What does this fold into?
Amino acid sequence: MIKEKLLILVFALGTLLSCVSNQNTTDNRVYNSLESMSLLNIPEEFLPSSGNCKVWFPDYAIDKQPFSSSCKSSFMERSISQIFITNEGTDETPVYSVLEMIKAKEGFTARTLYFKNI
It folds into this structure.
């Protein structure tokens, strides 16, 4: 019983210390301007609202694109090129995380891009 309480205490202390240490980390991501997002050929009205995600298929017509959804319910179609967009900011100050997955000869090439007003 004492061992279990000691283990729980160590776990709780470790969790608290990791939370405190995470607050001091700096954001090392490289951001692109929101204006440069137009290079992905995604209409602004199709970008997700805060806390939502969007899968954009470059080879689909606009009327065939899926709607934005919560990030937990978004899907990734793995057999074709796609762009997975998450709005990590607010509706007033969006910060888009973009995972671009382009179909290659064997699998995908992937890169992550970040966009915000800079």
